[in-house]
């Protein structure tokens, strides 16, 4: 059999028939990553096309390899050079690597450098100078970074929408000021554990970044009532022990049409008043965590069956709220018809025995766990007030308590 293809149409070579753009169209229609990788094994031309279309790259490499990858994958938009936190002995990416990244991946939109302990302000400044299209930067737990490097990013990357600086303890309010002036499109700031941040910095951020949707300032011990923001859809203030009812009630009022998720575990000044304000006023709220807020009682859930109460709440965590009883749990289950997860771990007054004694009944879809069974709530016609809102509850009274007496239930 001759190796030379026949001159007829049936013998035409595919590389002679299809243009590069047509081959890119074929590549775009391949689904699994394995199929896309196999595409590049056909020949060098197909490998070149596949490489030019790659948008996501994860690697651990030094400067020489990074240069080769930049040449081979010029279209990369998302680069992940993060290190595993378990490799505490290994610095990961260093400043020389960031020099190559800034020079070779000029169209980069997303860069992850989590746990890269070797990078300093010197390398981060290069990113700010040469990556103007950057929209997301994760430098969580890069503990050598300070305001100097990240202020350069704020100045040079004005399209930044997400900045994750969790665990960067040298960061101060000066960075938040730079973000408020330059990164007006910022939507997500993760600053958990940045213990130098204060109310003043958070307020300045609020004044400049009006598109914020998610803010994590948990374990920022210097943030109190003035720093509880009024612009986030997702707010994490867990461990901010100076936050009180005053600010949470103001938040519930100002964000009644936007707040969707709130985590304020270990905010020890929070009382029933805050939780009631959130439940009644924030109609879009789907998740609340008030774990370890030991002033929360059943009073937070009273009168929830009253006319006009509506809630889209799906996740409620009241673990270690030691004053909550079965009566409060009953009110939650009966009133929050969309509820999917209810965490009452370490609530000593919510046990299997107390639920049985109170005759607490769950919806018919209840699937008890931990080797015991409770009588499910019999099917019945819903009340007129609830007839157009059938329960889709898949409530989980979470397990993990100190003994089987505590009730884990999946509804």
Automatic annotation (TrEMBL):
CDD domains: F-box_AtTIR1-like. This is F-box/LRR-repeat protein 15-like leucin rich repeat domain-containing protein. It holds the Pfam family LRR_6. GO terms for cellular component: SCF ubiquitin ligase complex. InterPro entries: FBXL15_LRR, Leu-rich_rpt, Leu-rich_rpt_Cys-con_subtyp. GO terms for biological process: SCF-dependent proteasomal ubiquitin-dependent protein catabolic process. SMART domains: LRR_CC. Residues 179-350 form the F-box/LRR-repeat protein 15-like leucin rich repeat domain. It comes from Zizania palustris.
